[in-house]
Amino acid sequence: MLNHSPTMDGGMASDVEREEEEAVTDLLRDRFRLSTITIAEAEAKQCGMEVSLPIITCISDLAFKFAEQLAKDLELFAQHAGRKSVNMEDVILSAHRNDHLASSLRVPEGKIELLEIYFIPRTLRLEERDTWKQGEKSMKWMDRRNFWI
């Protein structure tokens, strides 16, 4: 007899599906932990310090839990807005408790294209680097790149 539990979309998940999901989560957690350890060790070495592995592991687990909760929040914000995918508005909404983060995520009206530059692969940016038009103004590629710096 299979135990069934509700899934996020209201359906029922079998034990096999749940085990597969847990295996994927464990793999992601392990990779996240490895990345955290690598970054922490590199930063500690650069500062001439040492950081113990239990501390790094604790920080990694805390950050992973935060990322899981953030993903759930973003998904719920998008669903509430009647969308199937997350957009920048959801990210800004999720940052509302952190004033510094929220203010750095807010983009002046009409400037969202500048923010997208950092998320577009370099090969695509090279194709359109001659000029960029925003309303009546035209900015050269280097001006755009340095605008937010």
TrEMBL record:
Select a single GO molecular function from the record's annotations and give it.
DNA binding
Q: Where does the record place the region Disordered?
A: 1-20
What GO terms describe the biological role, i.e. biological process, of this protein? DNA repair; replication fork processing; resolution of meiotic recombination intermediates
Is Metal-binding one of the keywords? no
Keywords associated with the record: DNA damage, DNA repair, DNA-binding
Against Pfam families, the record matches this protein to: CENP-S
Question: Known InterPro entries for this protein?
Answer: CENP-S/Mhf1, Histone-fold
Protein origin, superkingdom: Eukaryota
Q: Which GO terms describe its cellular component?
A: FANCM-MHF complex
Homology family: Belongs to the TAF9 family. CENP-S/MHF1 subfamily.
PANTHER family reported for this sequence: CENTROMERE PROTEIN S, CORTISTATIN
- Specify the protein name: Centromere protein S
Question: The organism's lineage?
Answer: Eukaryota, Viridiplantae, Streptophyta, Embryophyta, Tracheophyta
